[in-house]
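Need residues for this backbone.
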């Protein structure tokens, strides 16, 4: 079996397009079956015999026509990868595949390309958002389930089983406190979202909170956000913007319920067409007050209202704007030791334009008890939170 995964906020419902090739035993077999040659393209479209062999645009339509269905649709710049095959011999060994990947000299479109054993990893962008794609076989996936489990997990719902022992990732995960009480487990808060187009390379990523998920809401509400100082000047906190927002909602939730904090965030953010986190970032930058939403309760309440006003204004579209903005229905999974939410943001062209773009933001929260029952999946999720480098060691 070979797997192809395209990671992009355009891919609903969970930001991944997963295509399986059960007819290909391994990566070499995939390349041998789906390799493209110039002769095959000309046979399918004779007018290409007159095309400039150096001009990939003249060949692109036929390349996309022949391969889009295989990959569940086209996506940005994949034709460049296929175009590079045209004047090379079909691979006879995995070494030939490695030489093909090496011919890119590590550069692909707007990003990079790398091969690890029988796996290929590419990151690029479409000038609006980041995207990445991965191509690997069962040999690689079975050898490294901690790298691939989340990539090839098709259902939106994640398993809910929990274990009974402490679990810790084999690599550091940023902690939001400098010193931790390690006796009460930990929760890993993973934010696969960004306030700008750097939707993979500059996502918030994953954070460790020194308490288990059932106690996360009270812990956030009761602990102050800690900042570093350069003399009298406050510098950035280890807390991500999203955690600070969730802490603010947890403060006002009944019994500081984290479920209620998530639901309230979703309610407010949906009303504001996804502009709430962006407005928070704006108010902190413009006011030059990184401590926004982190002081006393009444100040937090006042600042939340101010952020809502800014977000409301930002989300209002000018009558001259081409786009209008809205939010789709969010997807929640809530269990004691695992929670996730997927938010959908919609940009629609003003009538009569039929254009419509939907993007998905994905947040996952799990603790060490859930991870102990799902160790490979837990590590794979944390790797996903590292950004574009998912498959390397």
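Answer:
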């Amino acid at each position: 079996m070979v797997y192809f995964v395209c990671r992009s906020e355009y891919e609903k419902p969970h930001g991944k397009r997963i295509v399986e090739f059960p007819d290909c035993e391994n990566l070499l077999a995939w390349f041998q079956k789906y390799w493209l040659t110039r002769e095959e393209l000309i046979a399918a479209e004779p007018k290409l015999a007159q095309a400039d062999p150096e001009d990939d645009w003249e060949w692109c339509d036929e390349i996309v026509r022949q391969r889009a269905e295989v990959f569940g649709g086209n996506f940005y710049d994949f034709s460049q990868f296929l175009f590079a095959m045209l004047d090379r011999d079909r691979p006879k060994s995995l070494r030939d595949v490695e030489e093909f990947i090496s011919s890119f000299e590590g550069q692909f479109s707007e990003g990079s390309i790398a091969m690890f054993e029988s796996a290929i990893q590419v990151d690029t962008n479409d000038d609006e958002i980041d995207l990445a794609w991965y191509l690997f076989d069962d040999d690689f996936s079975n050898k490294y389930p901690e790298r691939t489990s989340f990539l090839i997990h098709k259902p939106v719902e994640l398993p809910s089983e929990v274990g009974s022992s402490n679990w810790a990732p084999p690599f550091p995960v940023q902690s939001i406190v400098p010193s931790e009480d390690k006796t009460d487990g930990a929760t890993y808060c993973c934010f696969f979202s960004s306030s700008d187009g750097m939707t993979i390379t500059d996502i918030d990523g994953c954070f460790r909170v020194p308490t288990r998920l059932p106690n996360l809401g009270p812990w956030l509400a009761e602990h102050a956000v800690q900042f570093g100082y350069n003399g009298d000047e406050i510098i950035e906190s280890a807390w991500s913007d999203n955690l600070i927002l969730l802490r603010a909602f947890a403060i006002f939730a009944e019994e500081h319920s984290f479920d209620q904090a998530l639901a309230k965030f979703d309610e407010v953010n949906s009303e504001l067409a996804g502009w709430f986190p962006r407005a928070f970032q704006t108010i902190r930058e413009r006011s030059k007050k990184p401590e926004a939403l982190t002081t006393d309760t009444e100040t937090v309440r006042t600042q939340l209202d101010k952020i809502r006003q800014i977000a409301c204004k930002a989300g209002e579209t000018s009558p001259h704007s081409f786009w209008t903005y809205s939010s789709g229905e969010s997807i929640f999974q809530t269990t004691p030791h695992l929670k996730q939410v997927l938010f959908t943001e919609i940009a629609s062209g003003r009538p009569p334009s039929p254009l419509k773009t939907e993007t998905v933001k994905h947040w996952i929260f799990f603790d060490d008890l859930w991870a102990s029952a799902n160790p490979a999946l837990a590590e794979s999720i944390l790797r996903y939170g590292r950004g574009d480098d998912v498959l390397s060691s």
